[in-house]
């Protein structure tokens, strides 16, 4: 049914930037809140950023001021712009559509080197 495909992950140095994309198909994209989550080894998955259908956003304190979530409803795509990256940002980043249950993408690895 609904499919989410993340892209844009990779290896960057501390202080660098990276933009992740999540393309959504099989749903009425514009209706739903979208979120970016991340999971580092040995840690629980955490919500990084969220954007509602109306464009309201929320961020985890750890990324506030550095990350920006946005969406392009015409392209059925949600983005996560990451700047001033730190080693502690290293994780697998997952896109999710927030409905009753969450629908997840496959994840994309972001590695920030010291």
Structure description:
The chain has 114 residues and is mostly beta strands. It is built from no helices and 11 strands. The chain has strands spanning 3-7, 10-13, 18-25, 33-39, 46-51, 57-59, 67-72, 77-82, 91-98, 102-104, 108-113. Strands 2, 4, 5, 6, 9, 10 and 11 form a 7-stranded mixed β-sheet that branches. The protein is globular and about 40 Å long. The N and C termini lie far apart (40 Å). The relative contact order is 0.32.
Features:
seven-stranded mixed β-sheet, four-stranded antiparallel β-sheet
Short précis:
With 114 residues, the protein is mainly β.
3D shape: globular
Mean pLDDT: 96
SS field, number of helical segments: 0
Uncertain runs with pLDDT below 50, 5 residues or more?
none
Number of strands: 11
Portion in strands: over 45%
Radius of gyration, taken over Cα atoms and rounded to an integer in Å: 13 Å
- In this structure, how is the largest beta sheet organized? 7 strands, mixed
The level of helicity is: under 10%
Helix and strand composition category: mainly beta
Q: How widely separated are the two ends? A: 40 Å
Order of helices and strands: EEEEEEEEEEE
């Amino acid at each position: 049914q609904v499919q989410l495909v993340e892209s844009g992950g990779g290896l960057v140095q501390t202080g660098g930037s990276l933009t992740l994309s999540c393309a959504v198909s099989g749903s009425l994209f514009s209706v739903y809140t979208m979120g970016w989550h991340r999971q580092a080894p040995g840690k629980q998955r955490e919500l990084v950023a969220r954007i509602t259908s109306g464009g309201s956003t929320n961020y985890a304190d750890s990324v506030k001021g550095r990350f920006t979530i946005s969406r392009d409803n015409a392209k059925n795509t949600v983005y996560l712009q990451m700047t001033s990256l730190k080693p502690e940002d290293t994780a697998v980043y997952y896109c999710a559509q927030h409905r009753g249950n969450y629908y997840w993408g496959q994840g994309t690895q972001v590695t920030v080197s010291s």
